[in-house]
Design goal:
alpha/beta, Rossmann fold, 2 domains, 5-stranded parallel sheet
């Protein structure tokens, strides 16, 4: 259970997103799994402010029960909770989706400790990205814009360029050089394996597997904050679902070329 948070202090932050939420968000619903009652209320207030339907529960068991009763468009879950934590719940969700051939719901980790709840542990559990407490409405809006279904709120060309992460910046974020080295080694290994699998899926014209491997690659980018590549990857996944592989060849080629350049950069950090 996370340490207490001052609701008034968080609400005193800037609460107006840089761009208005898209109208189709009014038809989407987010499941929030958070054991801290104050933060649970805060998340509900944020989601209401963004025009999103939402359902709030206090642990992973209730989260699984809620997902069994109705579909949700996205799940935000605390990592450390009593009864069932976010990792166990996420693994159970992925097993259920696979067994029932269900569409993958995005799961966003909500944590106040990036050392204990490190990104690789989140990814291994089936989570797609993370949000760090204390959370602002602006930060929540940005992550939801990437992971909620439907058209992106802004075109990739409209995103301000964000510098690629530096080693010093990663150490400052994650708090320990050894954690950074382990994370980069693991992410690079998985990204290269997923890139090879993506190439085979493309060659076989297997659209579902191509989208799945792209999803894993986008998850790697999400944990390092590469917004432009993230958004392009998510848009490409939607395009493949809609138009297939052949009609997405140009976009796939460009994305893979830029991704290879980014992985080479990370390998040199």
């Amino acid at each position: 259970m996370e340490t207490d948070v001052s609701l008034s202090a968080v609400l005193s932050r800037e609460l107006t997103p840089s761009s208005a939420p898209p109208l189709h968000w009014q038809h989407l619903t987010v499941l929030v799994v958070e054991d801290h009652s104050t933060y649970r209320a805060l998340m509900g207030w944020f989601l209401k402010k963004l025009g999103l339907g939402h359902h709030l529960v206090g642990d992973g068991q209730h989260g699984l029960a809620a997902l069994a009763e109705r579909p949700f468009d996205l799940v935000i879950s605390d990592c450390q909770m009593p009864l069932m934590d976010g990792y166990t719940m996420s693994r159970a969700i992925r097993l259920r989706e696979h067994a029932n051939a269900q569409r993958r719901v995005p799961i966003i980790a909500l944590t106040g400790n990036l050392v204990h709840d490190d990104p690789q542990r989140c990814r291994d559990a089936g989570m797609d990205a993370w949000l760090l407490k204390p959370l602002s409405l602006e930060q929540l809006h940005g992550v939801l814009a990437l992971w909620l279904p439907g058209p992106a709120t802004i075109a990739p060309s409209a995103i301000a360029p964000v510098p690629w992460p530096t080693r010093a910046g990663l150490i400052e974020t994650f708090g320990d050089a050894r954690v950074v080295d382990q994370m980069l080694t693991s992410l690079l290994c998985e990204a290269r394996e997923d890139s090879a699998a993506l190439a085979h899926a493309r060659q076989a014209l297997d659209a579902p597997l191509t989208a799945e491997r792209l999803h894993r690659l986008v998850g790697s980018l999400a944990f390092l904050g590469v917004a432009e590549l993230e958004l392009r990857g998510m848009s490409l996944i939607e395009r493949i679902h809609t138009h297939g592989i052949v009609l997405s060849k140009q976009q796939l080629d460009a994305f893979q070329e830029d991704l290879r350049a980014y992985l080479r950069y990370l390998g040199a950090l």
